[in-house]
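Long-time lurker. I teach an intro course on protein structure, and each term I like to show students one example going from raw sequence to a predicted 3D structure in token notation. This year I'd like something fresh instead of my usual example. Would anyone be willing to generate the tokens for the chain below so I can use it in lecture? Attribution to the forum is fine with me.
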Amino acid sequence: MKSNNITYLLVIFFSLLSFNISASVRTEGESLTIWKNSLLSSCSSSVLHSWSVDHIDDLCHWTGIVCNEEGSVTRINLQEANLLGTLNQLNFTSFPNLTHFNITKNNFTGPIPPSISNLSNLISLDLSLNKFQSIIPVEVTLLTDIKHLILSFNNLSGPVPWQIGNLPNLLVLNFSDNKLSGPMPTSIFTKLSNLENLNLCGNHLQGILPLNNMTKLSKLELLRVGRNNLSGSIPEEISLLRNLKILSLYKNQFSGPIQQNIGKLHHLLALDLSGNIFSGPIPPSIGNLTNLSVLSLHNNSLDGTIPEEIGNLKHLRSLSLASNMLQGSIPIFIGNLEFLNDLLVSGNQLSSLMKDTSAETSICELHYLQVLDLSNNSFGGVIPECLGNFSEHLLVMNLAMNRFKGTIPGTFKKGNVMQSLHLENNRLTGPLPKSLANCRRLEVMDIGNNNITDSFPRWLDTFSELQVLVLRSNSFNGDINASDTKRPFPKLRVLDISCNKFTGSFPTNYLDHFEALMNVERVGRAYKMRFPVNLDFRRPNYYEDYVSLVLKRNEIRVVRILEMYSVIDFSNNYFHGNIPSTIGKLCTVRFLNLSHNYLSGQIPSSLGNLSMLESLDLSSNKLVEKIPWQLTVLTSLSVLNLSCNFLVGSIPRSTQFDTFGNDSYLGNIGLCGFPLTLDCNNMNGTPQLGTLVQEEKQSDFFAEFDWQTALVGFICGIPFGFLALYYGRSISLYKILPRW
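-- Reply from a regular --
Happy to contribute to a lecture. Here you go:
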């Protein structure tokens, strides 16, 4: 009898338990469907099609849902589901067993609900790559079992809650790329003894790095606080982070010397202190970091020489010391870094590639180089022949703005993978080497501002990837004759051959085939010439290419080479004949400069088709007749220079044209109307200057020389002199984009 009662009670107990479990599962399913119905994205109905009250019994097979043995939800994983909405309608109290909640890479907005603290068993929370706003609710710090807290890439603002130190089990804390402000809570460094990964980069945090009492962070492996407004010096206590593998402090306001004891971080794989105000020498103790793969110290105020101890870093793949005040030479130890991919030392005061005769050999031992940037230093002598031999790996060779002399090495091998070649602003002479024709993957070639003497390198028009070609300010000469190539320069967007000695008629054949300048559909599509730089193993940085261009009478540094920078500059040469009407097909050109040539005939009305044109300079030629009214439809035109020609008649009027002043028309004494003071109604006695060119041909020069032609020569001659000086300048720049 007694045993029957016990059996009866057990049956009742398990029946009630089963009922409770079933009720709990139903509550979870109903909460999920209510949340689903609140989402705005049309994709939610398709992605979450299985989420239906009619299928609650099959809850554990719903998209993104994982259950335990009792059928209760333990994981919600909806990453990259293209969902749009908020978390406001999600009843977190319905999920007592939830351990993982991942909705990364969606379009969720609004605040993070404080009720999220009801997920008392949560171990991992990932809300990254959404659009959450407002502050981080302090209730998040009640999730005491949490190990991974990832809120990166949102629009969160306000301070980092100081109560974050109440999460003793935290392994990963990632609040990067938000708008958080205020100081870094000291509780992070004094209480989170299990923390392995701390990432607060890309915010507006201020103050110092509070490492003064951080002995409990012995497990920390990754410390990323770059792209903030942190200041002060690197605390000496940083040497206590003995397990640190990645230390990234870039783009802050840290100052003072780099501490010697940083060399005690023997497990360090990547060290990025770039973009700060560090001063003094590079500490030799860095040579103790023998596991280091990435050393990035660029954009500081470091001085002295490059320490020889860096030669101990046998695993180093990326060395960036650019934009400092380093002096001396590239020392011989560089040859020890046999796995080096990237050597970036531009923007210093280095004066020699070699401390002794063997140093040239040392740099030639770097067979795995991908990016070599020695630009903007004081290197002299000849360019080492070996640099042309790095055909298997070298993508970027930038030797610009130095004092290299002699000829360009003729050792570029077949199968060359080089994509960017910068030799501008040196003292190079002679012709272009024939072996350059082997660099068929070139995208950027800039050899401007040298003393190269050669004809136009027609073989370049077969380079299908070439987008930027700058030959300006050299001694290139001769005609640019028609090419036999069926599709010459198919991707060329920047062509600058100004300030040379080219002759002959306008190279119409090339203009007719500049496909990239005719394709409107590609306009506005940002194109960055990027090359991987090993500044992180997981998310690499990039060396971003550049070009220096004279645009709108100013020389600018175009670091982001976008499709918007479509440039043709043929100025300061000896081209003659008419400007072909086919130039009007280059509908994406934004900057066109044909000034200081001997071009004649009328200004083609087809220029009115260049709807994106921002700057047009046809000055100092022999153009005649009227200014075509079609130019008045160029609403983007902000710079116009038609001075020093033989144009006549009334200047056309439009809202845009009325913004141009007298300087745009100087030296055309047959022009009248606004903005000139000469009224077109008083032009009866004024000679039509459109015939002056023909008169010069038919008469002795001195017989025809009068006050009018003297005035044209005086007005136009002085600007020509200044322009000749101006166009001779060039400024270059490299840029490294952090992507940590």
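Some talking points for your students: The chain has a mean pLDDT of 85. The first helix runs from residue 2 to 38.
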